[in-house]
């Protein structure tokens, strides 16, 4: 039956309006047709950035790293496995794919996709003295090249845009654990799609563990910063130090920056010097950076600043670079921010 909601002419009057019976019949036909139309989750296909569902075409302008019908899965079984699953919890397939925008192209994931890293290696330097046994936030990436297709990886850094932004050294802080790099090229696009938490134990076991995941420690969307995390103060340097008392040692990575808040004291004895040093939670991009700290607790409280004496160690000095005193309660407090 054809639908006809038009009036006989443009003049509305009691004599030319359609009858109530006709209107009711036409609306019933429309309702039936709409209810019978497939939803956007039924038999969808992508062409460019369009979702095609039967005769319905919807324009999709999703942000980069945006997943459709997909989520991150993290499992710990003699190592850690990070995978892409459908929203129903199954592996993607040709009949139930996952879609992701990488660069300006929507890519299709139609088969199982995961990356696994076994226990026993100091992955990302996450088992170093400053971070071992501490929960760390890792960022999940999806990348693409024409030979390998879509690949999955995870890293400690949130700012990578292409393969060359990562380190290929497994124990480097900027390493990315990627499912395949057989034909990886430096300019391959990578997108952050989410974040999860995990812990690596200290040497020599380097055992992975994961927490019970919640909306706080497993994020299913592009995100570019960690939570406020903790690290272990490890003093170093020429002075003899003992009796470490840590009041505060936390850090946050956002983009390509690291912000740390510290407050600790040591007991200094033999060989007093003008520096108290500690290992930072993430290496700086350049050791020429000088950072403000705040206060030095010594015989008197004075201003304090820091500079990188190596790629991992921050040296803390009194504002006038004078020698730290000997005894208990000596150390820096404040915050520092630097590029990584």
Task: Please describe what this structure looks like.
With 340 residues, the chain is mostly beta strands. It has 2 domains: 67-227, no CATH class; 230-339. It has one helix at residues 20-36; strands at 45-47, 50-53, 56-59, 67-68, 70-76, 79-86, 98-102, 105-109, 113-118, 135-145, 149-155, 176-178, 189-200, 208-209, 218-219, 229-230, 235-236, 241-254, 257-268, 276-279, 290-297, 301-308, 313-318, 327-339. A 9-stranded antiparallel beta sheet has the order 16-18-19-24-21-22-23-20-17, with no helix packed on it. Strands 10, 11, 12, 13, 14 and 15 form a 6-stranded antiparallel beta sheet that branches. It has a 3-stranded antiparallel beta sheet with strand order 1-2-3, with no helix packed on it. A hairpin with a 2-residue loop joins β5 and β6 (79-86). The longest helix is centred in the N-terminal third of the chain and has 17 residues, at 20-36. The chain is elongated.
